[in-house]
Amino acid sequence: MLIPDPQLFEELSDSKKALWAKYGSGKDPLFVQTLGLVVDEVRLDYCRLSLPFHPKLLQAGGSVHGGVISTLVDTACVPAVGSGFDKARPYSTISMQVQFLSGTSDSDLVAVGWVTRRGKSIAFCNAAVQTADGKTLATAALTFKI
Fold it and tell me: Which CATH code of 3.90.1580.10, 3.10.129.10, 3.30.830.10, 3.90.226.10 fits the domain covering 6-145?
């Protein structure tokens, strides 16, 4: 799975950019704050997140935990899906298939999520997680119920 060029996705209005810039950094006690995720870029149907490395992300074998990687692919798709709405509305992951391709033990991580098809009640997404130097750790296909 190739990660698409962000330039292929339409830029958001300034108000939508401001809304998504707060994602993960606001005062609401959200899970994304617990991990320390940073929103790097949100465009219509596209999102790029980063996660600075911390030893607490490792599992007993010394690699970044698969749950962290799964969280990244899921969380990267949330702004990608949400960017298509004019106002906030509920939606949630109903299916997620993650393919783990490699591991890492000490790298910052980057996650990209993008909508591949959007309907009235369902959105289909793809996502990938890479190390900061571009090594792909996982790819995923996700479905969201709107």
Answer: 3.10.129.10
